[in-house]
Design goal:
Length: 301
């Protein structure tokens, strides 16, 4: 019997690119502006600016409040650039979804408020977490499929809040938009039916691949419909390693936890179970704080 062929050395260095972190770390900044109406003149003082026949009280009447901007609606499409997708706010004009577009609104929700009904500034961790959790939940329901299938796609959700001026005018919503990455810092036009796309036949259209083995020079995530050399095949959940506090367990822990699962996944996917390659990309602390509490298993395409 011929001697078994040696398995190729696994690739086990972390990838530098953090697609999820880039999008999930979009800082949602909300400034609450309090407008004070009325006059601050001392009682009984005269108003030299008031013309003949005009009382001081008439001259100090505040102007009408500005009109709130139109509330976004679900299923509106927009042509956003990559940089625009990272912005805190977006007031671009919706376009027909029949035209080329890179973003589609999948949810519009009310901004978080405290128990007294006051808007919470979304610079706080609590408010940002509530906005992010809502949009991720909406994206999961919209895309369908399993959590693993969604994480292995290049589809992402981003969110926008009104500008300070819009908030002052009465805007109290935030918007969840679906986008897709073609490659690093490049958006992919959205095509076809998107609702339940992960659960259906359209998942391959947005599948995640790589330009090289994870952790090697030249690696970046790209959509599988473009040129690629490696393919993401499964994820390794790591949240339980964080304990009750959910803090990043440390690089040594997340690196070690994925070795055996990814080796097994590579072996299962190989034509020859005695000669195969596999790769493991574990999350950085930054990616972890952005919500990527899992590693990714890769194989040559």
């Amino acid at each position: 019997m011929a001697a078994p062929r040696r398995r190729a050395k696994p690739r086990r260095q972390p990838a530098v690119l953090a697609v999820v972190a880039v999008l999930a770390l979009v800082a949602v900044i909300l400034v609450v502006v309090t407008r004070v109406g009325g006059s601050d003149r001392p009682a009984g003082s005269s108003d030299s600016a008031a013309g003949p026949g005009t009382s001081a009280s008439d001259a100090s009447t505040p102007s009408a409040s500005p009109t709130p901007p139109p509330r976004p609606r679900r299923a509106q499409c927009r042509e956003l650039s990559y940089q625009a997708a990272l912005a805190t706010s977006d007031d671009s004009t919706p376009i027909s979804c029949a035209l080329p577009h890179t973003a589609m609104t999948i949810a519009v929700e009310a901004l978080p408020r405290d128990t007294a009904g006051t808007l919470l500034p979304t610079t706080t961790v609590r408010s940002r977490a509530r906005v992010a959790a809502t949009c991720r939940r909406e994206a999961a329901a919209f895309l369908g499929g399993t959590a693993e299938e969604r994480e292995l796609s290049m589809l992402q959700v981003v969110w926008f809040v009104p500008t300070p001026a819009q908030i002052e005018a009465g805007a109290d919503w935030f918007r969840c938009d679906l986008i897709a990455l073609r490659a690093e810092a490049r958006l992919l036009p959205l095509t076809g039916r998107l609702r339940d796309v992960i659960a259906g036949d359209g998942a391959a259209r947005y599948a995640m691949c790589g330009t090289a083995a994870p952790g090697t020079t030249g690696f970046s995530r790209v959509v599988c419909s473009g040129p690629h050399r490696w393919r993401a095949i499964s994820i390794v959940p790591l949240a339980d390693a964080a304990g009750a506090q959910g803090r990043y367990p440390g690089q040594d822990v997340v690196r070690e936890r994925g070795q055996e699962p990814c080796q097994n996944a590579g072996q299962d996917a190989a034509d020859d179970p005695l000669d195969f390659q596999w790769g493991y990309e574990w999350p950085t602390a930054e990616q972890w704080s952005a919500g990527q509490t899992y590693g990714i298993c890769w194989i040559p395409a």
